[in-house]
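The passage that follows is intended for readers who have already worked through the single-chain material. We present the inputs for a multi-component assembly, then the predicted structure in tokenized form, and finally a short commentary. You are encouraged to pause after the input and sketch how you expect the pieces to fit together before reading on.
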Amino acid sequence: MIDEEFIKGLLAKHSFLSERESIDCLTLESPSGELISFLEYLKTEESFDMLVDLTAIDHGEGEDNRFSTVIHLYSLLHHGYIRIHASCNDNNEPSMPSVSSIYPSANWHERETYDMFGIKFTEHPNLKRILMWDDYPYFPLRKEFPLAGIDTPLPAADVAEVTDASVEPAPMMGGPFVSSANGMVSDSEPRAKDESWTEKNEKPL
Amino acid sequence: MSTTTKEISIGDIGSRGAEAAGKLDSDKMALNVGPSHPTTHGVLRLMMELDGDIIEKCEPVLGYLHRGDEKIAENMTYNQFVPYTDRLDYLAPLANNVAYAITVEKLAGLEVPPRCQAIRVLVCEMARISSHLLGMGVFGMDAGAWTPFMYTFTEREKLYTLFEELTGARFTTSYTRIGGVSRDVPDGWLDKVINFVDQLPKAMGEVEKLLTRNRIFLDRTEGIGEISKEDALAYGLTGPNLRASGVDLDLRKDKPYSGYDQYDFDVPIGTRGDCYDRYLVRIEEVFQSIRIIKQVVEKFPSGAWYAEDAKKIFAPPKEKILTSMEELIQNFMIVTEGPQIPSGEVYFEAENPKGALGFYIVSKGGGVPYRMKIRAPSFCNLSILEKLAPGHFLSDITVILGSLDFVMGECDR
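Having made your guess, compare it with the prediction:
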């Protein structure tokens, strides 16, 4: 059981940890430098045998620690989850030690996190893009990346030469209807992102 | 018309073969499978290195179905995202709908009434049966048995008719809303569900007769693609693939949600973790789902089918909106601003047909999530392929892929 006693013991043993308030499971914050040894401890001593998820959050440009990774572990013994937050120190070149040597399941999750956020996982055995193609220049889940996407050269250069095509941003006129967080009702209600043509303005030919 | 014959000399065939072999680089062969290959169950590409017939290296290449669902989720209200969840594991959209709704409700601290929970359990189990029917059918096909597919697809068709009657759509159901479901069960629908599950064991028996003791099927699947208990846990496998390796983890039992603890069912686990065990586990899970469905219908609760007090989260049914001012305003606010969810973070995994489908949502308040991560079971299940495939024959790869029963829709998101 992950109860008060368990948490107290864990915090006493690892002074670098701090506990966060959470509505669902034990949530800890760990400095990135201690992450490897802490996860090793959790796996071998406390039988958290599965790393079920690893991802990152972009807290937005201008934040002190812009990127942080979030790890969810599951224990068959305790029948419970534990969540570990770790912040990346550098905003421009965020990095994090790879945990794939402890949990092989982290391998693909870390590749995805690198692909989407550009967080470099040091000592990762095969850190390359997994969902986007290898030469893709952007990190799509960063907050500044637009929903429609950015004009990008085709991954296949020979096809691009013949067809003169590129990866184009999605059309946002007339829908899809998207919403933005918070703000006035008139700003946050679902609407087409680009209103250059609506019922009032005709669709350009 | 006259015919002429001409003698041509082809020399000694044997020596020509030897000459050709000498010219070949006899070490390794690179083979590309996919992204459009019938046995890959979607747009999965495999880059393999072969030594003769034996796979030495296998590298899956993903992303051909990547649509940026997580980015899209950050740009729309919670209810607007429900149709996108259909397109994750599109063989069990109802189960995805339910998993997503429960996650957001957990974040909102909202408890849905028993009738709503029962409906959700019912549709989840029906989705499981439908997914496993397809999984078993195509698995048989991958191993060279065409006929079982016809039986399982006939049964799946009946389920889709039931889905259509309940949700209005056969495939992309979009059935749940945050705080409830889109509509109550229609009159007489539950009897039809019972009729279906009553006749299903007979059809399953036919499939089993064709496969379970089939000598060819056994030779193709037994001992192939063995995953040890330790590997299964280390690579984060979930669902039938994990249980086939002998790990007793079913989130419906371990962390019961939506009232699963009220129902009596067993969790089948395998011993060897090979392709055959994964098949057997799925067969048994269908029978356990039938058990659950019968219990749900038997004690189907009456009362509200959506959270009536959640006035800022669930938009009331249409007939109320059209007749009452207060409900009209409520509906307007929820459509324009989205369901109002407090700030915080939540992680929830549901036991889906393919494994544990997890949603991690970070909210900063309001109707739009700040960040949503979808933990797709197929993504994790496939990650073991790099380790699993080497050492097998090339012809085994179709069987291994079929037994892992993955869907690229949720793998690439």
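Commentary: The mean pLDDT of chain A is 84. The CA atoms of residues 51 and 73 of chain A lie 4 Å apart. How closely did your sketch match?
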